[in-house]
Specification:
Layout lengths: L11 H4 L11 E5 L4 H5 L6 E5 L9 E6 L21 E8 L4 E8 L5 E3 L3 E3 L2 E8 H4 L10 E7 L8 E11 L38 E7 L3 E7 L10 E8 L2 E6 L2 E2 L4 E11 L3 E8 L6 E6 L4 E9 L4 E8 L5 E9 L17 E4 L2 E4 L2 E3 L2 E3 L4 H4 L6 E5 L4 H9 L3 E4 L2 H5 L6 H5 L11 E5 L10 H14 L5 E5 L5 H6 L5 E6 L9 H13 L6 E6 L6 H13 L5 E4 L9 H19 L9 E2 L4 E8 L2 E8 L5 E7 L6 E5 L4 E5 L3 E6 L4 E6 L2
Helix pairs in contact: 10-11, 11-12
């Protein structure tokens, strides 16, 4: 059961007058908390009062405080009525403390409910934007019975939370929030340390090149980028925010030491409240952590490690502090030279987009990628790209090029450090390398723990477009709430979603359902990619099924998570088979859909008819776990002839504009005949 700290009740008799018809204009105020009577219209568990601070509409706002930092801010019966005709609900918020998140949920009287998922509240001012068409995927927005705002603060037992809200309004065409952070006067001030094995050890690119985890020893920590007094040198530093004391930290990507000898770890640290911090150079099975006390003043910590050549490890910095810790000027130096920086090698690969299709160097391209694979693992296979490599150097890009692969360099660390304005610096050294295909701007920007708002994503895309006209941006959003697709659909040039039913015992049909929603959200006018599982927990037929369900429901690219889950298992041979099929089908997958689609005698068969240059192709998959016999597929503008069943070594006869075939559970068939 969830603990409730605060509930705001909005009487239906008060707010039903705001069921606004479409003719009343582009914006309609719901409430702005101007008079004491407005406060009486709300029921608050916790502290709430009207104040003249941070008002954005009129003279007053509503100030709220939640003791213990955990609970709900709920409005039962709030904003009922007809939401149709409106694009979004906007709420102006001022958060005087550390970041946390807030969601909106709307309900119908019949029990249907829809959630907005996590909206981050920055420190300072934020306008929250709740996209109404996203709610419409699950509820009847013409008859909303209840609506509430849910505060998702850090964890139980945390600090008190404060919030000012004002100017709650319906909007139809009001512009989306634009993020315009103040740019540093000098783009890069931090000193460069010769021979540093760590990428971005000065954190001028946020957390680019760094991983993070905040839940060791029962803790709850979040991560970001510090400015001002939280910086030792340059413009930015790493920040580790404590929300529940335990242990959390950041860690570099693994690297290999070229020579045996003494290596030195060096960094500057400061804490808002004194506490212990740890540091080490570790690898699996080799934990070597040292601890020191961090104070409110900057201090310089150094430590020497003796290691053998070819030792592969990562630098870890841990916090056990009860408040924020700042880390800056972090270096790991010693004998030998780190991997060389990426040079501006050319000519650059050019990826362009036309509608929902992509082209690489003017040739139609269908991405077939898999995460966490080294290029040599994919050389000579049907895979053509590796998405989401956070640590990028000349060797990794050159290895991709040698294997005939493209890379989507991962900028998630930059974006999760909330520095989209630094995107041009982040890509400068690698943007002309021929292995770069597109920029993987952020992985799951909608994730609760690493939330990157849409406005920051849009700024990152704009900055990259100005610096690099050759490569588009890509993001992967989570599929748990449909409103996510509507919130992030305009943030990047290509949008993907990761749908993983197989390992958790779900249905492969989840892939079809989520892609249908993503296609509606984007109005079929940009590429959508599917990120699906490659897992030894699935059957081979299930792996084929999720792949072909994605294709028949409009996926313009397929990425698999991930290589490590299937390497050295029998499933890897099947993944190679699937990738080879997709490679052979690439001209078909890049061809236009037929204007008139086929009809199936069973609604369990999912299908897509394509008009390619060399003929017509019908891609089908059984979307059920039971066999289907004698399925009739009626094909428009076809009469009689021979039909080849690709990848199966058999043929069928097309009679009276139809073919008949049997389908095993989750089985796919691909039919081809001259156009």
């Amino acid at each position: 059961m969830e603990k409730v700290s605060a509930i705001l009740l909005i009487p239906a008799a008060i707010l039903c007058i705001y069921a606004v018809p479409a003719a009343l204009g582009d914006t309609e105020l719901i409430t702005s908390f101007e008079e004491p009577a407005a406060l009486q219209q709300w029921s608050i568990q916790g502290h709430g009062q009207l104040t003249d601070a941070w008002a954005t509409e009129g003279r007053a706002s509503l100030y709220l405080r939640f003791e213990g930092g955990y609970g709900l801010l709920e409005g039962r019966g709030g904003m009922p009525g007809d939401w149709s005709g409106w694009e979004m609900i906007k709420v102006d918020c001022w958060n005087p403390g550390p970041p946390y998140s807030l969601t909106m949920r709307a309900d119908n009287d019949d029990g249907r409910t829809s959630s907005s998922w996590y909206h981050p509240l920055r420190t300072g001012f934020t306008t929250l934007e709740f996209i109404i068409p996203g709610f419409a995927e699950r509820i009847d927005i013409s008859d909303v019975a209840r609506c509430h705002l849910r505060v998702d603060p850090p964890v139980e037992g945390g600090r008190d939370l404060e919030l000012y809200i004002d100017n709650i309004r319906f909007c139809r065409s009001e512009p989306r929030e634009v993020y315009q952070p103040k740019l540093p006067e000098i783009a890069h001030l931090a000193p460069k340390i010769a021979g540093n094995f760590l990428q971005n050890g000065d954190f001028e690119l946020g957390l680019q090149g760094w991983g993070s985890w905040g839940m060791w020893d029962g803790g709850e920590y979040r991560f970001g980028t510090a400015t001002g007094d939280g910086v030792y040198s340059g413009n930015y530093a790493a920040a580790i925010y404590c929300q529940k004391q335990g242990r959390g930290g950041i860690f570099s990507k693994p690297f290999t030491l070229p020579e045996a000898g003494i290596y030195t770890l060096s960094f500057h640290v400061k804490a808002e409240q004194p506490g212990s911090i740890g540091y080490g150079f570790e690898s699996p099975g080799w934990e070597d952590v040292y601890w020191a006390e961090a104070t409110r003043q900057w201090q310089h910590i150094t430590h020497r490690f003796e290691r053998q050549a070819d030792f592969t490890g990562a630098v870890y910095i841990y916090s056990r502090c009860p408040d924020t810790v700042y880390i800056d000027e972090l270096s790991f130096t010693g004998p030998g030279e780190p991997a060389s920086a990426v040079t501006a090698e050319g000519p650059a690969t050019v990826m362009t987009i036309e509608g929902d299709k992509t082209f690489v160097n003017d040739e139609p391209f269908f991405p077939i990628g898999i995460y966490r694979a080294a290029p040599e693992h994919l050389d000579g296979t049907g895979f053509n790209c590796i998405p989401g490599w956070d640590r990028v150097d000349a060797a990794s890009l050159d290895a991709c090029r040698a294997a005939g692969l493209y890379m989507l360099p991962d900028l998630s660390g930059l974006m999760r450090g909330h520095l989209p304005q630094q995107a041009a610096l982040a890509i400068a050294q690698m943007q002309n390398h021929p292995a770069v295909m597109a920029w993987y701007l952020c992985d799951e920007p909608d994730h609760e723990k690493w939330n990157v708002p849409p406005a920051e994503m849009q700024l990152g895309t704009r900055v990259i477009h100005e610096a690099d006209p050759n490569h588009p941006t890509v993001t992967v959003v989570m599929p748990w709430a449909e409103s996510i697709f509507y919130r992030y659909k305009d943030c990047t040039d290509i949008i993907a979603t990761d749908i993983y039913p197989l390992g958790g015992g779900g249905s492969p049909l989840e892939v079809a359902n989520k892609l249908d929603i993503l296609r509606r959200a984007t109005a079929n006018n940009k590429p959508i990619w599917a990120v699906i599982e490659s897992t030894a927990k699935a059957t081979v037929t299930q792996e084929y099924a999720v792949t072909y369900l994605a294709i028949t429901h409009g996926a313009d690219g397929i990425l698999y998570w991930e290589y490590q889950g299937v390497a050295n298992t029998p499933m890897w041979a099947s993944m190679l088979g699937i990738a080879s099929e997709l490679e052979l089908l690439t001209p078909v997958l890049c061809a236009p859909d037929a204007a008139e689609q086929c009809q199936s005698s069973s609604n369990l068969i999912h299908h897509l008819l394509k008009d390619a240059l060399d003929g017509r192709y019908l891609i089908c998959v059984n979307g059920s776990d039971r066999p289907m016999t004698g399925v009739r597929l009626e094909i428009p503008q076809a009469t009689a002839g021979e039909v080849e069943v690709l990848f199966e070594g058999r043929n069928l006869r097309l009679r009276n504009g139809a073919i008949e075939d049997d389908f095993a559970a989750w089985e796919r068939h691909v039919y081809a005949w001259p156009g």
